[in-house]
Structures are given as structure tokens and as C-alpha cells.
């Protein structure tokens, strides 16, 4: 749900204070814990270290991100993979295909060196 237009977007005052008077090139990574802060046009070009609950993930603010929250670009959950028997079979076939391709490449290399 969006914030009221009367109130305006939420931007952390400390964050604004950290970026005022600095250039994006020499500011480095600015650490922030406020994931709800909205990216404003003044923040474009800066790199923010957005906390995801475990570590600070670097987020480079671009023009396309203006109006979005910083937390949207720092996922809090790590997707591993879908599980199940079918997924395991697909992964096994993929490994077998990689092994076969590597063996075929070795044979081709060995044949070219013998011909010389």
C-alpha cells in the first residue's frame, strides 16, 4: 500500500544527511538499515549497502529505481531450488551431459595432438 500523497515519500533524514554535498564517485558504499526509505532523484548514482537481516548488499541507485524502496533490491530470502524427485532427475541428466561434453572435448584435443 502506498503512502499518502499528503505525507510524501519516506526518506530517512540521516541518509539524506550522509549524501548531501558528496559526489557518487567518492562516497563509497553507504550502509543503511532503513529498507523502507524511498529512492529519490538525489540518490541516483550512489551505492547503498542495504541490510537484509544478515549482511549489507550493495545496491547502485539508478534512474529506473526512483520511487521504489531500497529494500526491494536487497532480497531477505535466498532461493536455493525447487525440490522433489523430478528436479533431482533433471540435475542428474545435466551433470551426465556436462561429463559427456568434457570427455568429448578431451578426445578432440587428443586427436589433434596425435595428428601433428
Descriptive report:
This protein starts with 12 loop residues before the first helix and ends with a helix. The chain is an alpha+beta fold. The protein is built from three helices and three strands. The longest helix is centred in the last third of the chain and has 31 residues, at 85-115. The mean pLDDT is 87. The protein has two domains: 13-73, Ribosomal protein S19/S15 (30s Ribosomal Protein S19, Chain A), CATH 3.30.860.10; 80-116. The protein is elongated and about 75 Å long. The protein has helices at residues 13-19, 24-27, 85-115, and strands at residues 29-32, 47-51, 56-60. Strand 2 (47-51) and strand 3 (56-60) form a beta hairpin. It has a three-stranded mixed sheet, covered by helices on one side. Keywords: Ribonucleoprotein, Ribosomal protein, RNA-binding, rRNA-binding. It comes from Candidatus Nomurabacteria bacterium RIFCSPHIGHO2_01_FULL_39_9.
Short description:
This protein has helices spanning about 15-20, 25, 85-115, and strands spanning about 30, 45-50, 55-60. It is of the alpha+beta class and about 120 residues long.
What's the layout of helices and strands?
Elements: H1 13-19, H2 24-27, E1 29-32, E2 47-51, E3 56-60, H3 85-115
Parallel strand pairs: 1-2
Antiparallel strand pairs: 2-3
Amino acid at each position: 500500500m502506498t503512502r499518502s500523497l499528503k505525507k510524501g515519500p519516506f526518506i530517512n533524514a540521516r541518509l539524506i544527511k550522509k549524501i548531501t554535498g558528496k559526489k557518487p564517485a567518492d562516497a563509497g558504499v553507504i550502509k543503511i538499515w532503513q529498507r523502507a526509505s524511498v529512492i529519490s532523484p538525489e540518490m541516483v548514482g550512489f551505492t547503498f549497502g542495504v541490510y537484509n537481516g544478515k549482511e549489507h548488499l550493495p545496491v547502485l541507485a539508478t534512474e529506473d529505481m526512483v520511487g521504489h524502496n531500497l529494500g526491494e533490491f536487497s532480497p531477505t530470502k535466498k532461493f536455493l531450488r525447487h525440490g522433489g524427485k523430478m528436479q533431482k532427475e533433471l540435475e542428474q541428466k545435466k551433470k551426465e551431459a556436462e561429463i559427456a561434453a568434457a570427455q568429448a572435448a578431451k578426445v578432440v584435443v587428443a586427436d589433434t595432438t596425435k595428428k601433428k
